[in-house]
Each structure stands twice: as C-alpha cells, then as structure tokens.
Amino acid sequence: MSHSQESGGRRLDRRRFLTTAAVGGATIVGASALGGLDAEAAFAEPMDSLDTAIPAAFAEGRVVAMNRNVLDVAGSHGERYLIQLTNATSIWKLRTTTAESIEVGDGLYARGAAMPDGTIAADAVWVNIVNVYVTIRGIAKDRLHLTHGNEELVGHIVPDTTTASYLGGALTADLSRTRIGQEAQVLGAWRPADGNIDIARVSLGH
Amino acid sequence: MIPLVSNLAPLVCALLLAVTGAGKLFGRQTAQLAANTVLVRVLNDGRRATLALRTVGGVELALAAALLASPEALLPGVGTAVLGAGFTGYLAYARATAPESSCGCSAAAEGPIGVRSFARAGLVAAGGVAAAGADAAWWSQLTRRPGGSALVLAAAAVLLLCASADLDHVWLLPLRKARIKVFGNPLPSAAGERVPVAATVQLLENSLAWQTAMPVVRSALLDHWDDEGWRVLRYAGSYRDARGTHPVSVLFALDLTLTVDTAPNPAVRVSLIDEETEEVVPSSVLTPVPVRTALPLAT
C-alpha cells in the first residue's frame, strides 16, 4: 500500500468513526446459520444485482493490462473484460487487500454489475484464487508438500494468514495437527512466478 | 574406485533399462501414458506416439541385454550414453514447449517434467559413459571385490531411488513421517494465540446477523480492525428506498475472542453507514429472517 502519513491517519480516523457507529448504535442480532461471501464464494453462482435494471456479471481470466482502476482481463475462452474497481470493491489476494497488490499476469475471478458501456463495476475480486483437493506428502517449517492427482505442488505457509480447520471446526492458526498422508482441501493464492500456492486455508478431515 | 564403478555400471544401467524398458514395451498403460506426452504433438497421432514409446522400450531392453551379456564391449555403453543424451534433449524440448506434459520416462508414474526427470536422464547418460569404459566383466568384478561392489551397488540404488518418484511411498513418506514423530511437527501450534480474522469471518457467516444483512451486502470483506475487544468487519453494500439506491458500509462488530467452536450463537452488532451522508441507516432496511415454526408432530 502506498499510503502517505496523512492518508494513513485519515484511514485510522475513519476506522475510529466507523467503530463508534458499529459498536454504539448498532442493531444486535443473535443466533445461527447460512452461507457466506468469503473467498469460497468466488466459486459460487453470482448473486442477482440488487437493482433489477442492472444485470449481474461475472468475469474470469488473466490481467493483461491495468490502467488506473480499470483492469483489462483476457478470459480463458477468448473473451475480453474491462473491470472497474471502486472503493467499494473488495479485493482478495490471499487476504483482504487493495488494488495496488494486483499485478499484470495475475488470474482473477470478479463479480459485479454490467454497466451500459460494457465494463463491469466489480463488487468483489478474487486474485489468483485456487481451491484444490490434495494429499499432504510432506511437512516442513514453512511449507507443505502436496500432490493433486499426479501433480506435485508446494503450499507455502504464510505467517498470520494461513489457517487450518480440523473436522469442520473453527479456523485456527494452529497448523500442528496436520499429518502426512492426510487428504486436504486447500484454498489459497496461486503464485504465477513459480506455480506454487500460498495457503490461506487448509481444511482437514471433512 | 573408478574402474570398480565403471565395471559395475553395465549391471546398474542394465537393471534400470530393463525395468523402464519392460514397463514401456509391455505395460498396459503405455497408450495412456503416451497420450500425455509431447510425442503426440510431435508425431501428430496418439497411436504413433504409443508406438514410439514402445519402440524406445524395446531399444532399452535390447541395450539392457547387451550390457548384461557383453559388459566389456564398447558399443552397448556408447548406445546407453546416446540414449541418455537423447532423453535429456527430449525432456528439454518437452519442458520448453509443453511444460505441463508428462515425461513418460519410467512408465509407472505420470508427472510433470522436473528436476528428477533430468537427473534420471543424466544418470543414464553418465552410466553409459562409465559402462563404455568398463575393462572387466561385472560378474568377475563382483567375485573379486564383493565388499566394494556391494557398496557401489547400494550407492547406485540410493541414487536411483532419489531420482525416481515411483517408489516414494516406499521410503520417502515413511522417512518423513518418522522425522515428524521424532522431532515433532515443525508447523506452529499457536496455542493461546489470537483468533485469526478468517475465524471471525467464519463465525459471522454462520450467524443470523449475516443472514439478515446478506441482501444488503454486495462485496466480500473490505477491511477489518480490532478495537476495544471488538473485531470490526467492513463490507460494502447498498440499499434501496423511495429515493433510489444508496451505497453503504455494512459494519459487523464481534467479540474478537470468539470462534464457531466457542460461540455457536454469537451476538453480532450490525450497522449500516450511508457512504454519502455518513449517517447511520435505520436497521429497518434489514429484512429480519423469519423465525422457523416447528412442524406439528403426529402423536
């Protein structure tokens, strides 16, 4: 992030203001259950647009160029998308991040609303996201050796980011219960440079 | 030492080539294997690729027989070295033009071309060169220096095991498991550490608050921070009233120590802040989730 001192300060002020609003006059809702819009939602069906006049749009491909907040994306099947990022667009690249972290060559999934000029105003963008079923073949201090079918993969552990879930339990930073030979679902960010994965979440024993 | 290695090289090369050659020539999966290699594109045809792979298998077997039968002859050794060099060239070509293709080298395992494939091809070439320099038959070498021969053969076996993925489950995985048993799991156990943000998001997404606010939320997680025991999660959203559609920040505040394991029914503070006016939007725009009524039970 290229925040100047001043804008960093503004950001904190803004958070302070929002915290007061969130904790002060908030509606409290208790109790349980239903789906989500986290990283996994990148693989779900697009939601309908709130405004029925604006159709929901979905894009998938590789970033070929970036111009300010517009991403030029080449789809996997020859399509071309122009994706407009706004300050209401959530951007995921291993973690919640900002538009500055997107690079040319990255893969992405985006969803948003189709604009009359043909661009997509993105609500959410997931960069380099991968979701694979693997077998753990090796455990080292900073990485997991994985096989996906016959393919070998290295999954890097990222401090303060990589989490694990055991038997459907809560996500935890405790990774020490992984075992060699276990089947696992890995959600993470693909690294275009070396083809490996930074692990966001590893789910075991589902 | 060098003559010992070079006199035993025909035996080692012959055994390796016999295994891989027989796998390619007689293997049932050769056709399937060939389909994943770069040969298909080069030869324009799956059947021709299979035939090529089987022919290479036949050549490997013939070389193995020649190496075993006349270890002192120059030709089998040179042939093996040329074969090894050919494999290396083929791998380099395949790697450059179709990096995701399978190498088709050892018949049993499929997999992308990596360091191990090159190491194997290099070993074949080096073994061929060593075999060409043999000045005594391997059987006389074995009887003359049984101890040294056993050492060289064992070293060759270890080298080949390391260069091949086919037998990883026999030695590499048990070795890694044993290391973890002895030294413990090297990954962080993070006992008593703070709850990861992902766990708070998971808690939120399992909550009734999420279900209620879902129609308003448009984005995924935009920002998050911790403040006075609360973890605040910010999403972008929009709501409609008589004047049109308005962008809002949807804020959720949760106890930052809770997870789905410790709090199955968390209390979540939800608020909407209008992005244009910075005013709190009345929560009446949220659609409460209807309480499920129990079905009547037959008695």
TrEMBL record, chain A:
Species of provenance: Actinacidiphila bryophytorum
Source taxonomy: Bacteria, Bacillati, Actinomycetota, Actinomycetes, Kitasatosporales
Domain of life: Bacteria
The protein, known as: Tat (Twin-arginine translocation) pathway signal sequence
PROSITE patterns for this protein: TAT (PS51318)
TrEMBL record, chain B:
Membrane topology: Multi-pass membrane protein
All copies of domain Methylamine utilisation protein MauE, residue ranges: 7-131
Compartments it resides in: Membrane
GO BP, sorted A to Z: methylamine metabolic process
Coiled coil: none
Entry protein name: Methylamine utilisation protein MauE domain-containing protein
Keywords from the named record: Membrane, Transmembrane, Transmembrane helix
Major subcellular location class: membrane
Database matches in InterPro entries: Methylamine_util_MauE
Short name of any one Pfam family annotated for the protein: MauE
Source organism of this protein record: Actinacidiphila bryophytorum
Domain of life per record: Bacteria
GO CC terms, sorted: membrane
